Amino acid sequence: MRLILTAAAVVTMATSVLHASAAVKPLTPELMLTLARPSTASLSPNGQLAVFSASRYSIDTNKSIRNLHLVNLASNNSLSDLTPQIPDTNHDNALWLDNDHVAFLSKGQLFVKSVFSNAEPYPLTHFPIDISSVKFNKAANLIAFSAAVYADGSLAGAKERDEHLKDYKKDTALAFDTLMVRHWDEFIQEKKNNIFVASIKKNGDKFVVDGEAINLLLNTGLESPVIPFGDQGDFDISPDGKELVFVSKINTPDNAWQTTTHIYTVPTVGGAAPKSINPESVGAASHPVYSATGKSIAYLQMLKPQYEADRNRIVVHTNGHSRIVAKDWNRSPSSILFDSKDETIFVTAEDKGHVKIFQIDLETETVEAIVSEHAQSGLNLIDDNTILYSTASLTTPNDLFTVDVKSKDTQRRTHVHADTLASVHLSKPEDINFKGDEGRDIHGFLLKPIGFDPSKKYPLAFIVHGGPQSAFNDNWSTRWNPNIFASAGFVTVFLNPTGSTGYGQELTDAINNNWGGSPYIDLMKGLDHVLETHSYIDQARIAALGASYGGYMMNWINGHTDRFNCLVNHDGIFDTKNGFYATEELYFPEHEYGGVPWDPKARENYERWNPANFVQNWKTPTLVIHSDKDYRLPVTEGLSTFTVLQRKGIPSRLVYFPDENHWVLKAANSLRWHAEVLNWIQKWTAHPKSSASTTSSDDESIEVLTSQVKLN
Ligand SMILES: *[C@@H]1O[C@H](CO)[C@@H](O)[C@H](O)[C@H]1NC(C)=O
Ligand SMILES: *[C@@H]1O[C@H](CO)[C@@H](O)[C@H](O)[C@H]1NC(C)=O
Ligand SMILES: *[C@@H]1O[C@H](CO)[C@@H](O)[C@H](O)[C@H]1NC(C)=O
Fold first, then answer.
1. Residue 468, preceding peptide bond in cis (omega within 30° of 0)
2. Ligand 3 geometric centre to CA of 61 (Å)
3. CB distance 58 to ligand 3 below 6 Å
4. Do residues 194 and 149 make contact, with C-beta atoms less than 8 angstroms apart?
5. SS3 for 557?
6. Is the pLDDT assigned to residue 1 strictly greater than 80?
7. What is the C-alpha to C-alpha distance for residues 70 and 90, in angstroms, rounded to an integer?
8. pTM of the model
9. Using H for helix, E for strand and C for coil, what is the string for 636-691?
């Protein structure tokens, strides 16, 4: 397969509907992928300045630049580049050493930049290997960071052994005596993430490292941050700098089929074994943080073993004693921030399609939403009355805001996308509510297409989310961004059926051993409801799309209905049993189907919900996309799906990415992905579906090019 970028085609027409509204530009994949992607912010000690990083991709160079941006919160929210946007810049993980100096990671080492002078950044660390996930504690002048090291636990030892292996290891074999063999998109390494601390001091007017780095996880067999997604949120330094708290999987060969993680504390002077503060827990724990006074540690705790979508309980651990706070609150928080007096915590949690900020009084345990629209993250305490945070939505990537926690008044602090998104069409979401299977209340969103005219008829893009325990929220994403489909001329519907998160744990849990049951019924009822209530949708021009569990649902749909013109199946499950044997996280199918597939009772469940058992019914034209580094659902799932489609003569196309994981992340690959997906659904919804014509071959004349990327 070749990929050709036509340099001349700078402005691209998303669809033929575009000329209806000449002043408004569509949100093309090209535009979306080149928008700035701001991180959450880090706040200066005096609360006056904030720094965030943002990366920008350039199609011409096929490269991203990530630099640091400074926001002056105290003076007009002026926004400036703290480090320049020049090629090969990748600056991240900004932390404030004092009110004037920001440290940040660049190429695996820390550098320091003064905010008030034009002096160039200078290197702070010169460690033998790359470090990541850094935190700083002012009271003890201590940095804590992670690095991947061998059993000897030293940074220098890691460099030495890496070099030795490079020179002397002639074969490429990897050998394993236990699971996991691989996780997400990487084979398990001999090296493990350990957390180190090092002192820093001022030498003249420069910060320098003072003495050796100390490995706090030495000889423990523990690993933190937890792979594959762990970061500096996996540990925290106590306010006095004397102790560190971290999360790790426990030391056991069962980790491929257990989710157990424990929270450990360890003195930062080193030489002491970490102690677990939740040693009896069998579920996953996460996000440990110290309170501002240092008297308490709070963390999130799931109670059920093997279940990574159990409700997160908030545990506050004080003087050796743990209690669950707001234990009947039926939401699952994802982050915790203490006020300065240990009286209140602020948490973020999904709630009915939004990710809100809630305030919880630690004495009365009352829970109150203080920011309720869109998706919030990256909370910082400016003072007990004011929180700095980031907001994204279906119509914009992250910007910074503050909220007054008493009045709930919010104030916008940045407008990062003001220029790039000016005059770009971004549909605002319409809420969809209906009764699903067993009378459950189901919610979702609908976007109107670009150039909307209620007297016309439009095709529908019906998108099913993955997880399955996750949700479509009022949030921005560069993968499956619903506004891309609205800008390509589709009414776009994305529902949160049974299994979704943010609507109470019962709805999430109800998908257990019910994969093709309630969620499928919800989706079909939701589609009927949307068609009945939106006369501008053409009932005979509907595409369904989904990834991961959404891809499973595409295969399930193909075996159970032929109401769709076409399907797009990205990284979907073909065979539930084989999915168990080939995936890395065994706890996931074991929990969902009630055991291992050689257990006769569980085996019935695997068979019952197996899309492979219904291939005899398949009729619908399908685009199959799968990537080689998808170790969650290996590429054979996509190949199997394509084999059935081709062997049955059903119009189909396979798009394979050799260098992507469960997600398509590289921008050039994402452009190709978008071109393939939009082209497929435009082609198959160009004409009304007549059930007789679905097996006829393509009509090349209806092909619509949606982007600069040509499909060869
Ligand atoms: C803040 O911005 C306003 C409007 O742009 C301007 O009139 C004012 O002088 C600015 N104030 C400061 C302190 O920069
Ligand atoms: C919004 O979506 C992005 C992209 O999927 C994700 O990384 C982020 O965590 C989400 N934000 C919230 C607050 O859930
Ligand atoms: C484009 O960038 C990606 C990394 O994002 C790289 O893997 C790929 O090889 C690049 N393509 C070209 C033609 O340089």
1. yes
2. 9
3. no
4. yes
5. helix
6. no
7. 16
8. 0.94
9. HHHHHHHHHHHHCCCCEEEEEECCCCCCCCCHHHHHHHHHHHHHHHHHHHCCCCCH
**pLDDT surpassing 70 at residue 56:** yes
Q: Any idea of the CA torsion for 241, 246, 252, 256, to the nearest 10 degrees?
A: -160
Residue 446 backbone dihedrals phi, psi, to 5 degrees: -135, 135
Token pair listed for 62: 């096929």
Q: Which two tokens stand for residue 661?
A: 């994981």
For 356, residues 6+ apart whose C-beta sits below 8 A from its C-beta are 348, 349, 350, 369, 370, 371, 372, 376
Ligand 2 pocket, Cβ-based, cut-off 6 angstroms: 355, 375-377, 392, 475, 477
Segment (H or E) for 292: none
> Residue ranges of the domains in the chain?
430-575+610-689
Catalytic residue check, 548: yes
CB–CB of 592/513 below 8 Å?
A: yes
Q: Is the pLDDT of residue 13 over 80?
A: no
**Which ligand 3 atom lies nearest to the CA of residue 63?**
2
The pLDDT score that the predictor gives to residue 37 is 98
697 is a catalytic site residue: no
Q: Residue 523 — φ and ψ, nearest 5°?
A: -65, -40
Nearest ligand atom owner, CA of 57: 3
For range 76-91, the mean pLDDT = 97
pLDDT at 691: 53
Q: What is the CATH number of domain 430-575+610-689?
A: 3.40.50.1820
The tokens of 192 are what?
Answer: 């493990």
